[in-house]
Every structure is written in structure tokens, then in C-alpha cells.
Amino acid sequence: MNINELFEEIQDEFIVEELNGEFILQAKCIVWSYNLEDSSEEIDYTEEDEDNMFGFDSVTSEELLLEGYQEDFIKIEEFLDELEELDNWTISPTDIVDEVIIFKIF
Fold it and tell me: Model-level pTM?
């Protein structure tokens, strides 16, 4: 399977709502990226919630990025295994810049 075919298989398998990040085909690799700014949802708080939030440890941007990455990575890894393509592709380590995390499949 070549990179274009793999990209089509990934697009056919996953709908946008199933993944935290998104895939794009770039030259001879597939780039997955997850941007916290694009995915942030507005949360409504009540007065009671605000009272309970005192003393709560907030989660860092990096932790949120890594959580989103891990969820999607597991799905992609399982999908590549189902296609019997897991050993045919290399997945790069993650790279975090500001509020974006990426990895590449090549």
C-alpha cells in the first residue's frame, strides 16, 4: 500500500468527530495534528461548580495535547494493525509547538 492509498483508507475509516486531531497528506507522509485552540469547547459553570473548583489542580495544555494524541494514536495503531500495515509504516515521535501537537506517518 502506498501513502496515498493509506491516506484514503484513514479518511474512509474515521469521521471527523471520532478523532481529536486531523490528518493531511503532505508530500510523502501523513501528518496528524491536534490544536487545542480549534478543539476548545466553552464550558458553562454554575455557582455550585465554582465553589467546588477551589483547590482543583488545573490541567496543563501539554497534558491535554498528550491526552488527545494518545486517544487518536491508539485508534490509528489498531486500524493499521487491522489492515496488516502496522509494520510497513513508521510513526514519528510527537512534536509540541505552542498549543499544537503533531506526528507523522511515513
Answer: 0.77
